[in-house]
Amino acid sequence: MQEGSLHYIVTAISFVGIFGGGFISGGKGKHKGWLIGGVTGTAYSFIILLFQYLGYDELFSTEQVIYHVCYILICMMGGILGVNMNSNTRNSI
Questions:
Q1: With contact defined as beta carbons under 8 Å apart, do 66 and 17 qualify?
Q2: Cα–Cα dist 89/66, whole Å
Q3: Burial of 61 by CB count in 10 Å (0-12 exposed, 13-18 middle, 19+ buried)?
Q4: Tens digits of per-residue pLDDT, 22-71?
Q5: Can you spell out the DSSP letters for 5-25?
Q6: Reduced to 3 states, what is the DSSP secondary structure of residue 57?
Q7: What's this model's pTM, rounded to 2 decimal places?
Q8: Pick from 71, 89, 93, 70: which is nearest to 27 by CA?
Q9: Helices 62-92 and 33-56: crossing angle, nearest 10°?
Q10: Share of the chain above pLDDT 90, in %
């Protein structure tokens, strides 16, 4: 397996994981899932930025900024779905 092919696998796992984080946080928040998901995605990106800046003394590149904006958007979508799944379960009982 080449290092280039692992990049796509790691990116896919990151998107699934950040979507799951937004889904869980939105489900626990029970309202304003887009905001809760956005905060969760922003916190994730901020932790990665701190790790990269303090550990490697580098800021985000343009490609990384695009990835992290996508992470925040995916997390917002997960938060919206988490709120809607939670409210649908309560209404049917």
A1: no
A2: 35
A3: exposed
A4: 999 999 988 899 999 999 999 999 999 999 999 998 999 999 999 999 99
A5: HHHHHHHHHHHHHHHHHHHHH
A6: coil
A7: 0.85
A8: 89
A9: 150
A10: 70
